[in-house]
Amino acid sequence: MSKPVGAITRGTTGHNRLRRADRWLAAVHAGSLRAAARPLVVDLGYGASHATTLELFTRLRLIVPDVEVVGIEIDPVRVAAAKPYEREGLSFRLGGFELPVSRPPALVRAFNVLRQYGEAQAWHRWDTLRAKLAPGGVLVEGTSSENGRRAVWVGLSREGPATITFSARFDAFERPSDLADRLPKTLIHRNVPGERIHAFLRDFDHAWAVSAAYGAHGARQRWLASVDVLARTWPVPVRPPLGGPARWRLGELTLPWAAVAPDR
Ligand SMILES: C[S@@+](CC[C@H](N)C(=O)[O-])C[C@H]1O[C@@H](n2cnc3c(N)ncnc32)[C@H](O)[C@@H]1O
Fold it and tell me: Which residue has the CA at smallest separation from atom 12 of ligand 1?
């Protein structure tokens, strides 16, 4: 076997760290996973413990009973540590960006992996990873806080980036732009005046400020009111699966990627 592509980085992870993203991908992408025969899901860079891969497997099996999940890690010590937790439909193997799997995955989740690479590498890996997807497949690449209460992720199809999602527990931020520290590597350096992502976070903060009165009914109501304000000037999807109150009430907001994409 040739050397896995990439570099061993910090293995920080934890139970339920990726719950918010898993909930989103189950709601938004269950249809395409169910449509595939024995869909293959890859969890790339699962870290020092198998925990978040097992959680992904457990969550997906509830809605897609024949899903197969493979955790891929570039650190052989972490692969050895995860091996005892293998079971029917769940396995762990050594590998990197080359994705050593036998068929194209319907879903690749890569969380808190690309942030540890340079910006040019992050763009490049978006392109090479999405090219490996099965038709209709999705790459979910994102960053979260260590406890998973704040997260931002991008959904990419084989054709390119499609969506960006902001997600936070209501007690984990003061204003929406606090999520800026979780932007993916492709955007983190673009959060400056003149860039779309900066304008969006500025407008989200403004919407949050003018919706302050709703806070009397709780942060959830204030978030819902803020999204209504934002939707007047930003192309917020307002219908399921990406939008609508059922998603927003979770402290979540999805936008088309094009709305915040930097000019490269
Ligand atoms: C910070 S941990 C994230 C763990 C888990 N995904 C999470 O979000 O909690 C990043 C992991 O990605 C691994 N990694 C980095 N580059 C990789 C690559 N190219 N292929 C596979 N794993 C990689 C690192 O070795 C590390 O264990």
Answer: 45
C-alpha of residue 94 to centroid of ligand 1, in Å:
11
For residue 33, report the distance from its CA to the centre of ligand 1, in Å. Answer: 24
Ligand 1: nearest atom to the Cα of 17: 9
Residue 158 lies in a domain: yes
The total domain count for the chain is 1
Segment among 2-6, 18-22, 106-110 with least mean pLDDT: 2-6
CA of 53 to the centre of ligand 1 (A): 12
Return the residue whose CA atom lies nearest to atom 23 of ligand 1: 45
What's the pLDDT score for residue 237?
98
pTM of the model: 0.97
Amino acid at 133: L
Q: Which atom of ligand 1 is nearest to the CA of 75?
A: 25
Q: What is the pLDDT of residue 79?
A: 98
What are the tens digits of pLDDT across the range 167-211? 999 999 999 999 999 999 999 999 999 999 999 999 999 999 999
Query: By residue range, what is the domain housing residue 96?
Result: 19-174+235-255
**CATH code where residue 32 lies:** 3.40.50.150
Amino acid at 259: A
Tell me the three state secondary structure of residue 203.
helix
Using alpha carbons, select from 63, 251, 232 the residue that is nearest to residue 165: 251
Residues 41-97: pLDDT tens digits?
A: 999 999 999 999 999 999 999 999 999 999 999 999 999 999 999 999 999 999 999
**CA–CA separation, 240 vs 238, rounded Å?**
7
The rounded distance, in Å, linking the Cα atoms of 204 and 195 is 14
